[in-house]
Request: fold
Amino acid sequence: SYSKLMPGQSFISFNMRQFSLGLSNESPGWGPGQFNSLIFSNNASGFGHITFRTTNPVDIFVGKIEFEVLGGSLKSADFQPNYGTYGPINKPKNDRYVSGLNFVFSPRWFNGLHFGFSRIFQVYYDDLGTKLDDYLPFFDGFQKQVVGFQEDAKNRSQQVSVSARWVFSKANAEIYFEFGKRDHALNWRDFIMSPSHARAFLFGFQKIFAFNASNSLQLRFEATQSQQAINRLIRDVNQGAGQSWGGHYPVTQGFSHYGQQLGNGVGPGNNVQTLEISWVRDVRKLGVMFERLEHQMDFFDRAFLDQSPARPWVDISAGLVGNWRFNRLVANARVQFIRSLNYQWQQDFVYPGSQNARGVDRFNLHSYMGVTYLF
Reply:
């Protein structure tokens, strides 16, 4: 066991009109996702960074824009990973510099429509250059035939995503998606023929059915796919095609802070579908949640191949969620009942003369509760 004293989600900023410049230890939240995000989410603990951002949308006649530019420091986990018979894999423990740009454009002629663009880079401090482009590299080209293989030569990794969100205010509904890439395409031909290489995506919707002025029914759904596409079989695995979303040569920690992914919170190579139905009244909420989670599918494909009787490890779960306010106290809780099929890919019995097996299933109960005091 160990303990840490950390600044949490604290920040200090100087605000002028619609802009803010500050020092922050927050976990940025980028993208339209409700349960997950490809680039930045609250999955990992906050990390120290400098931020320049808008506090409100800025009108530029053809629409409105919002943005955030940040540069900060990421830490490594306090332990080295161990891959069974392969033993420990030693990763550099020195800190990494991370920089990011998030930009959102809302066209004037389409009410509620938002287009987003996000791009982040990371590099070990030992490999960080001294030019402005090394600290703010967002405007580098996207094709390797144009920019060369300089990203790998500079020992830095990147992720990029585009997103769209359309809010229908009269219908109390919204739809959205986010599509991300973690590796440059060689050229436009490469991207057009293999757009699924090194990609991840999510999509979802939300709808609120109002019973009266106080009570509503909230319906939310989201699906996140971070398992690599089938074209991994014809791409060179040694060049990173076999890695999961969030990871890419040469920064071996991937986009993580203290070993936790900065973006997709369900884990590397995982796929998840989530449905929530809740009664809502102001901050109070009571509902049920259903979820299906596929564990580490990229690892599964590499480890077992087609000849193995092993089957994917899949969690099917149902849970209760709720928020309730007691004067200045707001309590939130979640209880989740999880049925794990083929838990950790274990096999209880392999049928003779076939590639089929009966997996080991497990039941798990997961719950948490939190309390917020409103000053």
Summary: The chain is about 5% helix and 45% strand. The first strand starts at residue 11 and ends at 16. The helical segments are 132-135, 144-147, 150-153, 188-193, 297-304. The longest helix spans residues 297-304.
